[in-house]
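Chapter review: from sequence to fold.
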Amino acid sequence: MTINTAETSRVVALPPAVRRPGSRRLAPAVVAWTKGWLLLAALAWGCLAAAAGAVPGPWEPIFKGVDRASGTNTPGIAGNFPRRQVVRCVRVDLTDPDIQLFATPKAASYGLESRETLSLTVPDFLKRNQLQVACDANYYNASPGGADPTSEGVPCDVFGLEISNGTVVSPQTTADIGGDPRFAALLFTTNNQPSFVFVNRPPGTNTAGIYTAITGYYPIVSNGVNIGSATINAYPDSWIHQAQPRTAFGVTQDNRYLLIMTIDGRQSGYSDGALDSETAYWMLQFGAWNAINMDGGGSTSLYVADSTGNPVAVDHSSYLAAYGHERYVGSHFGVWARPLPGFINDVTAIPDDTAVTITWTTTSPATTQVAYGLTTDLGLSTPLQTSPTTNHAVALTNLTPATDYYFNVISSQGAEQYTSSNFVFTTTNYVDVSLLFDITNTWTYTTANLDGVNWTARNYDDSGWLGSGPGLLWVDVRSTGPNPDVGPKNTQMPADPNNNGFPYVTYYFRTHFAFTNNLAGVALTLSNYVDDGAVFYLNGAEIYRLRMDAAPAVITHTTLSSDYPCPDDLNNYGNAVCPDVFSLNGDLATNLVAGDNVLAVEVHNYNALSPDITFGSALFINEPLDASPELSLSAVSGQLTLNWSRGGFYLQSAPSPAGPWVDVPGPVVIGPFTVSTAEAAQYYRLRR
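The token string follows.
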């Protein structure tokens, strides 16, 4: 009998909703006063009873402290909404000590109201921060792009309060609410205690002790009451109050559970979206006592991680369906959680450059084995260790540095075999990175036609070239003056008098550098500012083409670049403000020699009438680093403890330094390892 521990989750029944429709007794009008807004919701049980047929399914555990449920309705059948809605909800146990909440952190080079965060899809936010759950959060304005930037990494102004890891990313400011108010804040303390401030007007509520915070548009559930209809007048908006895709956050009455809910929309025949009151209805069904509507629309996106950390869509985003990728949004919310407990637990990989140690525990003694490989198909396995144990450790050796490996762990008890989900680790790569020359390096340059000339060779004489100077080397003949974002402008080159004063199509560059270290295993990294395309040569051999026709196309002095830099930056497209970085290793780096080397580059313009051309390059050398493991020992009360932190090593012992050396029985592949100091003299070492 084989049991996959990833598929043996216990199913938990759905708890009773705070308010269930179906009673025929009419409820009185409900008035909710929320810090400055009078929300009037004239609700009747008969109104809610119209949706009595729309009931969510059961909660299914997906991580420790995290459950998932879903629901849908059937339009046209009595007791259902008139439009089809596919609803997903994730329930997070805020009392679980392992749960951690996380909002989008501050952008590098932070700027209030302009560069608070950087745009990123929800699945990339999940993967980059190694989260288990992620979704969209606050409204934002990207520059350029507004609500719909064309790429990741675009600066965004987040609307409303957002706090990440105790740091205020976006304060509640007057500038954020000018014409587009976002007031409904959800705040969490360091121990995940939640609180709502439905109308968080500037300067905003006291955030002392708040570790995480996000802000939505308006409340839809207050004290267990559906106030969705009241938002139409309280928050006038001709668009958002229509049937739309929805993202909503709620909390149960006892403050134990956070509810993250999405409703798909704008996909006729699958899911049409929801009104505010319908969104509130679903929130009540999932158990919310208070809830807020977030940004939603095309930004609505909910993802969970698989066992290898890759994002898996929970909802069916309208933006993904329309554009083939999720929207690049400026604000996100995520949850870190541990895997569900099972027979196999605590799977951990400690990678090294060519080895790894994998450990796990089982709830009772079992055998030990690891299956692994370069893909999820695995294909390789370690020998079976038949001695039953609850603490398992396996070392894998002869791996490739800087490489992803997939693996699962296997433990058996009698006829029952337990197999974990697939996991992934990345081997390290011990290298020493040194700068050979910076972007301000000096180059000789010329504009002459060098077709048929071996100008890239080491022994070529460039003393008669047009000039020399430090980077960046540039020409810019625009009437408005050179682009101020391009820099440093150290060497101005001439334009072509025979081309109406525009730059030459091609400029040629050469520089010498010395390398005297061991050549074995060396790799090169070049970081460049190039406007527009270039071909690079090392000691006479071509090594890289940047935005030029691919080989075997012949490049001449009249060849134009096939593209230009920064195509996604509307303010700087076609200008050398985005670094072009590439690395050369293996066969591509074999032209490096001990002693004098020559790097040669020809830079080509995108258009014969383009007003500017720019070049500068920095060169880094990546050399293998001898990184020996450290074996430490300590003696306390007659016990000797050996420890080491690197993975993939076996502990050996011998009666003398001369040997004979043997593996310590086990084998022992992870510290700490303790022996009695009363034993005869013994020596220890690590081996691969």
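Two observations follow directly from the output. The two ends are 35 Å apart (CA to CA). Residues 1-52 have pLDDT under 50 and may be disordered.
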